[in-house]
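Data availability (excerpt). The following record was deposited with the supplementary files.
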Amino acid sequence: MSGGSLDYFCYKVDDCISALSYRKEADVKAVVRLLCKLRPMMRAIEWHMSCDTGRDDEQKAIKEFFSSDYELQCAKSLKKDLESMKREIDEVIKGLG
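Predicted structure:
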């Protein structure tokens, strides 16, 4: 079966992303972001193992996963989430007063 060397793990990651995407907690949102970043790397690894793509595709995906700007992107995204949460809390407090 083409692409299935790891039992289509990347599609299982998709299932996890779908199941968690509705969650609002910052830590769960961080997990979803990580899974979104993991998926293309795992797809590239699995497809290379199945001889569907070349080693260069696998290497590129692994390099992108471990790129140094990933942590910065996560931090910026988390900051945006926290700022949004703060605005929501401020609105709730304003409504109470």
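Summary of structural features: The longest helix spans residues 69-96.
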